[in-house]
Structure formats: structure tokens, C-alpha cells
């Protein structure tokens, strides 16, 4: 009996080396879980105009390094670290273009007549804070991270993160009247 | 050290949090950004595995592919999360949903189910099969549309004349059913035998191919 019917066979491939990253969720799940947190942080930190580029760059970089992560890593702290670095890059690039941050608030198209006018003014002021203070305030109040993860994302000690946060709040209080 | 929270900072924190709640309206914007990202990752080939739902008369199948081709086709009752976690463990966690890249799979399956396609041409990746499974399913792949073989015949083709039970197990764990036609393997004497997707579906596929009349 012959079963040779001349059907084109697909390419057969041998088993590949097993992933080192056993236990990591599929990347799509990781993206679904953390996209909102990253998006909120980026919109607040760099503004809506640059947020999408930063968002794409954050998750493309995350995808690149993803299989090398150890199972059990704090995935949110990890992706927020990447997002924080992309936001810093965007702020530096904007400084080189000499585009004042105030203009970015104008580009937002959010008029003071918006129902959240006070909050929007406040968050525009957050964007004018010095780097470390802005990062700490945004990670805390927009991304909702605990102090430990703020420190991890900023690459500093928890004590330093708390200090930046406190300095940021103090400065904000001088900048806007709430 | 806990910073002294005076009344002013407390109100400030409240306003910052109200700003965050205002931003929750941007959930959809975030979802749209994530969707743009998924399609970019798929079109630039940055993921190791892409997947998407694919319609069929059996309901919505889940198709998954590597850069080599279709690696998994799952019936509707399979748990999607468990399936994707399995692929993450066995191949790579760089898995992204990419509906657009499965149009060729949808087209060929659609043509197969409406009777106008007798052989699949889509690229496949047989990574998920064991060495023995690859031999058994290789012999199965050669059974033409409308034809059938017995478990014993397939085992013999795979080089294990006495391995019809092992061949049955290999067929039962076929990661790409329908496309790799394990439904064309029956028990000697014409009894349908088993099918991972249920005997009703096996009968449906054999009837579609015109393989059943005269056989039972």
C-alpha cells in the first residue's frame, strides 16, 4: 500500500530550544494588563502629543527584552522603568527643540473652561517640575505606584523617591493655588 | 521618614487624584494605542508568535503562527489563556494578537469548508509535535482529500507496524487539526475511532470530503 500522493509537504522543523522565560505571561496579556498605567503616566509626563511615540517605544523595548526576564519579576515596575526612561528621552529631545513645556499644554487644546480645569492646570504645572520631582509625582499620582516601585522605576532609593515626591508637592503648592 | 502632610498638601493630593480620575476617560485611547502597537509588532515581525480568532462552521477557532507558519489551531472549547501560556512556555512568550496576518488562513479554511479547496497550501510549523508525532502526522498529511487510512496503516507508514495505539495518541494530540487531516484516520473496519475535537466534527469533516458513504 502506498500513501504517496504527491502532496506538497510543509516544512518540518525540529523542536526549538525551550524558552528561558517559562512562567512569563504571553506578551499580549502583559500589554493588556499594563497599557493603561503606562499610557496615563506618559500622557501626564510628556503630554498627549508625544505620548503615543513614547508608548510604542516603551512596549517595543519591553518586547525585545521580555524573554530574558526572570519569572516572578515585578512586571509593572519593570515596564514603568522603561516608560520612565522613554519619558526622560522625550523631555530631553523637547529641550533640544527648545519647545517650552507651556506650549505643550496649549497644544493639548484643553481650555480652562474644561470641567477639570483645576486638575488640568495642576497637571500642566507637574510637567514643569524638575525631572526627578515630575517623575515622582507622576508615578505616584497618575500611575498609582507604591514608593518602592517609584524608586525602582527612577533607579534610586526609596528614601530618595519619597524626598523627590515631597519636594515636588511642596513646589506645586507654590506654583498653583488649589 | 514620612513627610509632614499639612492641609495644603492634602488638598493638592486630592486634586492630583481627581486629575487621574479625569484621565480614566483615556482608557479607550490607551486601548487604541495598544492595538496600534499590536499591529505594528505583527507587521514588523517583532513577535515570535501571533494569534487570532478564525471563524469556522465549528465556531471560532484560535489560530497561532510562528514566522515559519501555522503552529496551532484550536477548537472553540479550548481555554485560550491556558493555550497561550503553553505556547509561551514551549516556544516563546513574545506572543501578540494580530488578526490581519491570518487572512490567508481564513481564506484557505473558508475555501475548504465550502468545498472548493481540497489541499491546504499555507505554511506550517510542526514544532509542537514529538519526533514520533511528526512521523505519524507526516503519513497522515499524505492521505488525500476524500481518502482514509486505518490507525494500523498510519502506524506502519510511520515505521511502527505495531504502534497503532501510539499512533492514535499522536493523532489525538495533533496541534493543527483539519489542516493536518487526522480526521482521515479510522479504525480498521471503518469504525470512526476517536477525535480530539469530538466525533461529531470528525463525521462532519469526512462527510464534507465525501469519504463516508460506502465506508460505513
Could you write a compact summary of the structure shown?
Chain A is mainly alpha-helical and 178 residues long. Chain A has eight helices and no strands.
Give a verbal description of the structure.
The complex is a heterodimer of chains A (178) and B (216). Chain A is mainly α and 178 residues long. Chain A has 8 helices and no strands. Mean pLDDT of chain A is 81; it is low at 1-9, 12-21 and 103-113. Chain B is of the alpha/beta class. In chain B, helix 6 (151-157) packs across helix 7 (164-172). Chain B is elongated and about 80 Å long. Chains A and B meet through helix 1, helix 2, helix 5 and helix 8 of A and helix 1, helix 2, helix 3, strand 4 and helix 5 of B.
Tag the structure with descriptive keywords.
heterodimer; A: 178 residues; mainly alpha; B: alpha/beta; four-stranded mixed β-sheet; two-stranded parallel sheet; disordered N terminus
